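Q: I have three molecules that I believe assemble together. Could you output structure tokens for the complex as a whole instead of separate predictions?
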Amino acid sequence: MIGQGAVAEAARLQAGVEDVTARPAQSYWRASWQRLVENRVGMAAGAVVLLMVVIALAAPLVAVLVHHQYYEQDLDNNFAPPFAPNHLLGTDELGRDTLVRLMYGAQVSLGVALLTVLLSLTVGSTVGVMAGYYGGLIEDLLMRLVDVVLAIPRIFLFILVGILFFHQTSLLSLSIVIASVGWGATARLCRGETLSLRSRDFMLATRSLGASDVRLMVRHLLPNVLPVLIVAASLGVGGIILAEAALDYLGFGIHPPTPSWGNMLSNAQTYYVHSVWLVILPGVCIFITVLAANVLGNAVRDAFDPRLR
Amino acid sequence: MSRVGDDLELDRFDRFLDEWSRRDFLKGMGGAMAASLFFAGGLEALLAACGPGNGGTNQNVKKGGHVTEATTSDPTIFHPIFISDTASLIPGNMLFLGLLEAGGDGNLKPALAKTVPTVASDQLTYKFDLRQDAYWSDGKQITSDDVVFTYDLMHGTKYDYKKINSRYYPDLEQYLDTVTAPDKFTVVMKTKTPYAPFLTGYAFGPLPKHVLEPVAINSPADFRKNDYLTAPTVVSGAFTFGKWDKTQQVVLNANSKYVRGRPNVDQYVIKNVGTDQAAVNQIKTGEVDIAGPPPSLWDDLATLSDKIDRVSFVASSYEYYGYNVDPNNPKRPVSGKIFGDPQTGKLVRQALYYAVDRQQLADKVYFKQAEPAYSVEYKTQWSLADKSQLPNYTHDTKKAADLLDQAGWKPGADGVRTKNGVRLSFELLTNQGNAARESTVQVLSEAWRQIGVEAKPKTVQFTEYVATSTTRDVDTYMGGIVSGGISDPDLSQIYHSRVIGKGLNRMGYSNPQVDQLLDEGVKVLDRSQRKKIYVQLQQILMDELPLAMLLWPKSLWAVSKRVQNFAVGPFNRYDRPWIKDVYVTDGK
Amino acid sequence: MPWAYLLRRVLVSIPVVIGVSAITFTLMHTTGGDYVPGVSDDPRLSHAAVEAIRHEYGLDQPWWVQYGVWLWNLLHLDFGRSMIDGIPLGVHIADRLPNTLELTLTAIVLAVVFAIPIGALSAIRRGTAIDHVFTVVSVGGYAVPEFWLGLLVILLFGVEPALHWGAPILPTSGAASAFGGGDVLDRFSHLILPASVLAFGYLSIWSRFSRSSMLEVLSQDYVRTARAKGMGERRVVYVHALRNAVMPLVTLVGLELPGLVSGGVIVEVVFGWPGIGRFLYERALAYDYTTVMGLTTFAAVLVVAGNLLADVVYALLDPRIRY
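A: Yes, here they are, computed for all three components at once.
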């Protein structure tokens, strides 16, 4: 995926530590899950991530409860500090409620993370599994395309795809921008896994029973590739949230008045002298979420990565 | 410099290049100000105190040392006849002497010309007497040949001027008849028709003929790419070219052959710091001496009054929003019919204008560094009408709602007004990278929501903003206009129907009476006669409101106390005749 | 190493570079179309004048001709001219690439130099306070937005000291002072802040990585054997274990080499560093698409060449790899 986690993954691959045997048995999932649950730090991080999801989902409810919408302004009451009357976390430069905006901001940050993971996994695994399965010309074409995408430096590609969506940014467009970088690594990962599986006995057996290509890929290859995908996905989430913030900083982010942690943070830089909490609050949200996502990602890797077994 | 006043087209260009290149795309950081370059102007009191004439009165003038000024984008090219961005104007004007230049009082002052010429009785001919003591930095004398050569580059039969492609040839084709040199120190220019903006907009300083003529003859198409224009070896201004470290700084050295005498400082550095926030940080750290802070940090700088002087003044610029008033605009027919309806369009435009609390906007979004605008002209413009002569739009939500009722827009089920099944809903476009504008569109949208109007703010990159609004693919749009120096009050590039879809008439505004007044305005050379025409225009335009004027922002400057005589003013932001008098107290 | 292998690798790289140029061309063409910055919207230029300029840039040609011409020039290592200032991209790149490399290389070296001892120390002192501190810092370090860290550093080392003591501890912008810019010391002082911020990101990961590979090595048989043979603990750790633990890190660092050109975009923007990344960013926003195409392709060529080089180096270093 995006983050440096992907780099570590790739390093591992490149270092030749590849050893997947047969299809994971049902017990693999149970055992992995067991390992994950027993990882207390990982579980705590998972709880934090879950909390952020709850916060994001609760945003509309809280907005109604505190009688402030994220776009509602009160110019005479701007830059109110935290614990001001009516505004628990204060207000921003237009007098909008910071608490409500942070909660809606969580929707953007987490929404983009989720969509990006889905997009790059879907595209990446499709391409990777197809390339690995069919081989030959299809593999060559697909993997050269991956080479091309991976040859463009990550942030250059952000910028190139970013300006394509100047006109109308949305959760989806941001996800496309970030996923445009992420799918390539996933595809390579999947292809590697598929290659090592293709010649296995169970594949040959299934094929000789007359299973169709699609069935083979979806029913037999994909489940085997899944652990690798899960690991890649969970390691990538933190990086995606940071990437979204970076896009905001560069001006490719979601348009106001819709808040995201990244644009709240970038916006507030000008006001740090007199309203430092406007910088601190979104910064802390990003920090905690990325931290929790990374710790959780590591725990997931420790639990699920077949190569670590 | 040659180019004293920036006509509107250039203003627009300034804005254009200025903004995209100011890499403050960090929304919060910079834009608000589009600052220094973006807010024109000069403080009259300050000018009186330390205008060029008074520079020498200070007994403690020190020689030597250097000054560093922060900008947020790189220059592109150095001679004024090619320059189209503000980042280039500052070094360009320091390197080249103009025929005329901007006085701090808003009047033209002689530079290479001995006096400001007055038009001959034929209303067409201008005669320039050149100084005989002016030399190029290589020691050759500056003569009328150089001036004529420079005009030949832009217009006429001598060179392939279209290939040379200066910024002004299309204008000169239209207005200029001939430029001749009867003797070594006299230049005579003749316009085709009486044209009032001529001296303000088209009196250019010379390029050295002895250096550049071979290029003009041999390879006109490569003229612009010629090294001279990015590293001019032979110049006429207060400074000579030192070096240009790309994306970092331009270093200029004092020119000992400058006609007014060598500048006090040895070097002048124009440092590209990237963002306005960085500029403010660096004036605090002392890494730069001069910077344009955003309004949001203006008060913060007050705490540094022992180190930094703050200079602010209302400048030649305004912020506005515009309506699509053309019911036949093929790209946006719905909003065209809302705002351009012959019966009710004007009521809607006025209603929205009444709903905006411009004083609050100035106080809160511009941190008190702006004034509500009451005219379509700059506040600094000599043709500005008196406030009492113009319609008065005090913030009045009730009146706004009444006007909408009157126009037939009735509150709908979802809170948005409707009329014949059409919702009163539209987009409000502005450019990114300017925090104040991004806030302003949100404030407008919120103010209009209160009266049952739905405006959806949309911010795009500046280049995109210009492209979209020029092709009139907009419902409403918010922007600004700025002039760098003295500008002519002519408004043709904004309101004339012939520039619909070409110039700044992005509204699709067409009013025969306005067209006629605009055409008349540029032909009358007498100022008091002209003013009557422009007052009438202001009255019509402020009533019709194709563009709704929001604010006259202030130009903000932070100048380190070690720098003295930096006499920046409303008309002297890029054109700085006083630059030679600037000195540094510590000699460093 | 057989030359045939090298040749094959080079040949395989060519379609990749062409592919990159095609993708970039398509993206920029979709975005900017035939828009010419500073010309298309100039109200003063007549239609004919605009057409003339478009002709000069070949924008009146069909897209495949434009692309073909561009590709043809590329084969001659001509990356084209900027649409905004008409300056050949080769010149723009030559002006800025050294600055960018100076920044990114320093950051990588800095990160490696700190990552190895930090990782090793954490591994040796596993479970102690020092290990925990390093863990928290490195895991936390990766969760901080780069631009935010940059701004913080500017405040802490530039603005605040200047306000209290009259001068910044370190310069906060640019690659050199206007005067004496060739001075090594001057350049170095400008380099410290941006390089540190950039290095911090790498450091967070690499120190974790070197910790875990050190742990792995320490539990290996030969380390235990060495200890059993009575070899001094220092010698065991520093000679045997550390050397073996560093090898995987080399691979990891090698993977970051493509980032040499682009890795510092945000840091370059925050610190006003006159590099390639910042230049591309500005020009992309201005739709200077000849510049964007040229720069992206140039970067891709470097990435491809870098990968090639890495493979060759591995092959030379590691006797187990045979082609």
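A: One point stands out. Confidence is low (pLDDT under 50) at residues 1-22 of chain A.
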